[in-house]
Specification:
The structure is a homodimer of 350-residue chains. Helices cover 43% and strands 17% of the residues of chain A. The first copy, chain A, has 350 residues and is an alpha/beta fold. In chain A, the strands form 2 sheets. In chain A, strands 2-1-3-4-5-11 form a 6-stranded parallel beta sheet, with helices on both faces. A 6-stranded mixed beta sheet of chain A has the order 7-6-8-9-10-12, sandwiched between helices. The longest helix of chain A has 17 residues. Chain A is elongated. Chain A starts with 14 loop residues before the first helix and ends in a 5-residue tail after the last strand. The interface between A and B is large, with 54 and 53 residues. Chain B binds a DNA duplex (16 and 16 nucleotides) through α2 and α4.
DNA sequence: CTGAAAGCGCTAACAC
DNA sequence: GTGTTAGCGCTTTCAG
């Protein structure tokens, strides 16, 4: 093994060398490596053995050059422009949600030997340059997480014929594939639960209304409550951060001091809401029941632990990865969407 | 622009075409593209214009093939083996810390146009296969986050001459570069603070003792307290998770009901400790002062917000990226380490 | 079923 | 300075 460490530059084994060792042509080795059907079993074994002994692994660059495929997909996070004064802003990356997506993606991409390449797009120029860059790098497909309401990336990518799948429905309608959760089913679960535990003065903290998730979780909850006979649901808009949840809760409490149940559009805000509630002397869930959304780490960490609507993020991410792979295989398929069912997770807060 | 969308397969512009348009040779175009010094300014402009009009972008695969460089670094997360029963285990990815590292890394890699490729290594076979894979994939360097105490990856990588930089000192000593925080300076800040606010019955919740960070934060704190005249510090070991913090706190409280100050080796555990403290009727910080470590999202989210030792994760990650770039440039440099100074962030808990 | 040969798009000697 | 010429390691017709 130490023979590797010689003075002359070490070079990885090539197809050619394997061919020489096996006593066949490069073409045959290539066929074996790529699992072509029509190869003599005897030669196949011979080649396999040669590959084994030489420790051969195909060179991706060379392969990409001819196949025009890299076996790499971009994992793009698209965010609003970054401002100079805040060098390291809180972004999706800071959200525990991001890690869950990564896990799901890696789980299907890893075994198939395709690598996710991380890219952050947080400026107009980066947005415009992305398509070109992807082309340059011969990236096969894109997994896009966009938290920028006016994002033009989804349409840019599809019109450039780059196989793309989004996590969440795009804010601006575009003919692009995506995975998402059935937000409205989730809000119904929340409403039902609140009613089931006899809450009658119910309010909600909504997410940003320029994001589809924010909208649907608000409208869906309102509709569900209407079906329970409560036509009007007091609501305040938050920005999906813990701090936003705190502020929203404070306002809501000032306007409706007697509320006894609240649905919060995500766990981070719910955690903030719980904290404010307690500071104002309300017991959770006794005085006020709280239900969040996502089932993120924040939900377990909260005191009391949050009853919440679980979004199967890892599964969604895995499906997203499967979808790009599929679109790379068959580029002419029309856009597809896969919607996951959320579920109620009962913990201490409601 | 719509001329692109023709029926025949569209092919990106090549160096050759640019050369033809500019009326020069491929070599000249290549020189211009790569900023070679010795090119006639007139031709240079001519070529630039041709590049402009053709929308040429170099093909990385082709370039890699000859330069033996990909402009890609692996961002490897190495974890203990994953068990079949838990398909999506809580991992570093779930930790908000991971996102901060990503931000820092992207911040230096992005502008220089080198891509981080995400890889997860969570099995013995993956560990063994990694080196070969990296070599043959022509990955230029590795950014390694290892949370596996017995990890052999650091030494494997360095002995394979793969430019590598770790986040945190390796658990097993190895001649490898890394960035880290001065844990002991941090623990001293914590001890000083606790003493400064007149705490006299001080304990600590330590991290896992098979991780250098866990050890140093324990020993460092003990030493600092010794310098303040307290020779023995009651301690319980936790596993760096919130749940671990809760359990450790409960034990500590049972054994030392009168403690009035505690240093916890990370924020997640500190958050758990605070929760338990309050459940046991202790006010924070009035009855018991709590200081965490990291200044992670958990610190701000906690009630009261955690006084903590800040670790400049984004800066550390950025430096790590710079270091790997540097080692790629000069492979023969001896291993280097850059240690960052932590700082005390005073919030509500101490 | 197998081998020979022609590139994929680019860089790097090496001549001019 | 600039062009010519070899490849980098692989896949893929096309003969045989």
């Amino acid at each position: 093994m130490d023979g590797d460490r010689v003075a002359t530059t070490w070079r990885p084994t090539t197809l050619d060398q394997v061919a020489r060792v096996a006593g066949v042509s490069r073409a045959t080795v290539s066929r074996v490596v790529n699992g072509a059907p029509n190869v003599d079993p005897g030669l196949r074994d011979l080649v396999r053995r040669a590959i084994e002994t030489t420790g051969y692994v195909p060179n991706r660059a060379a392969r990409s050059l001819v196949t025009r495929r890299t076996g790499a997909v971009a994992f793009v996070v698209s965010e609003p422009d970054r401002h100079a004064e805040d060098p390291f802003p809180a972004t999706v990356f800071g959200d525990p949600f991001f890690g869950r997506v990564v896990i799901g993606v890696l789980d299907v991409l890893g075994p198939r030997d395709v690598h996710p390449v991380l890219m952050l797009v947080d400026s107009a120029s980066a947005r415009d340059g992305l398509v070109n860059r992807l082309r340059q790098d011969r990236i096969d497909g894109v997994l896009l997480i966009s938290i920028y309401p006016d994002d033009t990336l989804p349409s840019q990518l599809t019109s450039a014929d780059v196989p793309t799948v989004l996590f969440s429905k795009p804010a601006r309608p575009a003919p692009v594939s995506y995975v998402d959760v059935a937000h409205r089913d989730g809000t119904k679960l929340a409403a039902d639960r609140l009613v089931a535990i006899s809450r009658t003065r119910i309010a909600t903290i909504a997410g940003p209304q320029d994001a589809p998730a924010g909208q649907e979780r608000l409208v869906g909850f309102q509709d569900a409550m209407a079906r329970h006979g409560q036509p009007f649901v007091p609501s305040v808009e938050g920005n999906f951060t813990q701090r936003g949840g705190e502020q929203a809760m404070a306002r809501l409490l000032a306007e409706h001091p007697d509320l006894d149940g609240i649905f919060v559009a995500n766990d981070l805000m719910a955690a903030g809401a719980v904290a404010v509630l307690r500071e104002h002397g309300r017991r959770v869930p006794d005085d006020v029941a709280v239900i969040g959304f996502d089932d993120s780490a924040a939900a377990r960490g909260c005191r009391p632990p949050l009853t919440t609507i679980r979004q199967p993020v890892e599964d969604m991410a895995a499906e997203m990865a499967r979808m790009v792979l599929d679109r790379i295989e068959r580029p002419d398929q029309p856009p597809a969407s896969v919607i996951f069912e959320p579920s109620l997770v009962v913990r201490g807060s409601a």
